């Protein structure tokens, strides 16, 4: 895949970039390694000043970087601005909280006295140079939620971003330099996916984090495993959205529309499979389909647009293949399932709802990365749980219920990294984020995320 900005709203190639040469990659690796030797000794106050300065710059640049993101991958301009604002808030959160999150831990004396210790504690130390392999769908947020905690912990980062968002990638590397971080603290590598293995095997790179597809995750995990290097993986998702009879069904349906089409439907944590109890199914279907039909599909630069294009021609073709397969096998189209009229250029697809889904359909097993929802009717809680878990993914989940016993049951039995009640899944710097099963392992954000790339060092002193 070429490294290029291709506008998904019209298919026009706006700018292409040459990949770094081997010598240029080597220069950046050497710079990162040398920078870590000194940057790791800086204190939290210094790092906090730099991170807050980077947040200031991002806020100043919000409109410009939002337009770049929209141009490169098609999210609506208002969504792009919101993404930039969220990143600045997360940077400030880590600037404010990193020292507390990484404070030394002191086991109770009674717990260690039989070890012969006069004192014992756990100290969190940075690991070193971390490679971040990041996706295009949230081209700023996915990177910042790694970079902010990693830099605040004293690590340094190398960014291999998706090849269709090169301008966003370059902006990120420049942002931290402008903020005053030492040269080499965070560098963008414009390279092809084929270069990842050599970079990851380099002894100066000590760990990697990847957000992306399952095949990409398997590849990075296998290389890192061979080198015995730490990895964190956030892969795909096919999140269930369960609605029980005690819920506010109309509100659930309205929220479901946003939960499905956020980021033009291209979000790992978007609700994708809507599982509704038969007692409230008809109401939910009516309200949900009406909400999906009411969405405005159009130019993502326009404020009135709710849903822009998917990111690529291949991405739209993948959606069409899944929908066509479902229809051929008996699914009912409640809305959408076609390219919108009047769009001769660009990779647009109408918000779509399918019902009558069976396990024989690909859409039942595979992730739909675009504005396509599947709707299921269930008889009871047991069937809802079983259907929600009938997937190889386990990123997050949504449940609508006012019943306390049902709440506890869903928390206990849903196979997912998160359970969000009476609202849609979202990431927040204070809450750990990640999945189970084929959605990956490890956690981002909160104290769990900042500690992923730290050496938890036991310090023991004899009595």
Determine the N-to-C terminus distance. 61 Å
Q: What count of domains describes the coordinates?
A: 2
- The CATH class label of the largest domain is Alpha Beta
The main pleated sheet reads as: 7 strands, mixed
Query: Which secondary-structure class do the elements indicate?
Result: alpha/beta
Q: Write down the overall geometry.
A: globular
Strand content bin: 15-25%
Mean pLDDT: 97
pLDDT < 50 runs, ≥5 residues: none
Structure characterization notes:
The chain is an alpha/beta fold and 463 residues long. The chain folds into two domains: 4-236 and 437-462, Aldehyde Dehydrogenase, Chain A, domain 1; 239-390 and 396-421, Aldehyde Dehydrogenase, Chain A, domain 2 (3-Layer(aba) Sandwich). Helix content is 42%, strand content 19%. It contains 16 helices and 17 strands. A seven-stranded mixed sheet has the order 11-12-13-10-9-14-15, with helices on both faces. A six-stranded mixed sheet has the order 6-5-4-7-8-16, with helices on both faces. Helix 15 (404-413) links the parallel strand 14 (398-400) and strand 15. The longest helix has 25 residues, at 77-101. 51% of the residues are buried. The mean pLDDT is 97.
């Amino acid at each position: 895949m070429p490294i290029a900005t291709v506008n998904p709203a019209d298919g026009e190639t706006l700018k292409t970039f040459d990949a770094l040469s081997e010598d240029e990659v080597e220069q950046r690796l050497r710079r990162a390694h040398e920078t870590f030797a000194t940057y790791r000794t800086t204190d939290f106050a210094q790092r906090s000043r730099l991170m807050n300065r980077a947040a200031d710059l991002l806020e100043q640049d919000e409109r410009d970087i939002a337009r770049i993101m929209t141009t490169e991958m098609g999210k609506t301009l208002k969504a792009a601005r919101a993404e930039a604002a969220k990143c600045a808030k997360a940077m400030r959160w880590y600037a404010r909280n990193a020292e507390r999150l990484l404070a030394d831990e002191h086991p109770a004396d009674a717990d260690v006295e039989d070890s012969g210790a006069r004192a014992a504690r756990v100290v969190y130390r940075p690991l070193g140079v971390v490679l971040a392999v990041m996706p295009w769908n949230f081209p700023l947020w996915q990177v910042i939620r790694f970079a902010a905690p990693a830099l605040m912990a004293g690590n340094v980062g190398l960014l291999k971003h998706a090849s269709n968002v090169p301008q966003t990638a370059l902006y990120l590397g420049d942002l931290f330099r402008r903020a005053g971080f030492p040269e080499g603290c965070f560098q963008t590598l414009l390279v092809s996916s084929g270069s990842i293995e050599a970079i990851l095997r380099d002894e100066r790179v000590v760990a990697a984090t990847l957000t992306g597809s399952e095949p990409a995750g398997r590849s990075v995990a296998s290389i890192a495993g061979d080198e015995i290097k730490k990895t964190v993986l956030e892969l795909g998702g096919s999140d269930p959205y369960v609605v029980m009879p005690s819920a506010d069904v109309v509100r659930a349906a309205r929220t479901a529309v946003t939960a499905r089409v956020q980021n033009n439907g291209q979000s790992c944590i978007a609700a994708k499979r809507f599982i509704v109890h038969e007692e409230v199914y008809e109401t939910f279907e009516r309200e949900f389909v009406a909400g999906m039909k009411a969405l405005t599909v159009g130019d993502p630069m326009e404020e009135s647009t709710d849903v822009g294009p998917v990111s690529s021609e291949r991405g739209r073709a993948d959606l069409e293949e899944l929908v066509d397969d479902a229809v051929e096998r008996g699914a009912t189209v409640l809305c959408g399932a076609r390219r919108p009229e009047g769009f001769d250029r660009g990779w647009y697809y109408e918000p779509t709802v399918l019902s009558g889904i069976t396990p024989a359909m690909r859409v039942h097993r595979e992730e739909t990365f675009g504005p396509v929802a599947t709707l299921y009717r269930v008889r009871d809680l047991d069937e809802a749980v079983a259907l929600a878990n009938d997937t190889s993914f386990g990123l997050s989940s949504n449940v609508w219920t006012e019943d306390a016993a049902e709440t506890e049951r869903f928390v206990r039995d849903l196979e997912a990294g998160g359970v969000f009640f009476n609202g849609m899944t979202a990431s927040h710097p204070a809450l750990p984020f990640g999945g189970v099963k084929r959605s990956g392992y490890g956690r981002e954000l909160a104290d769990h995320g900042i500690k992923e790339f730290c050496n938890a060092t036991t310090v023991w002193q004899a009595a």
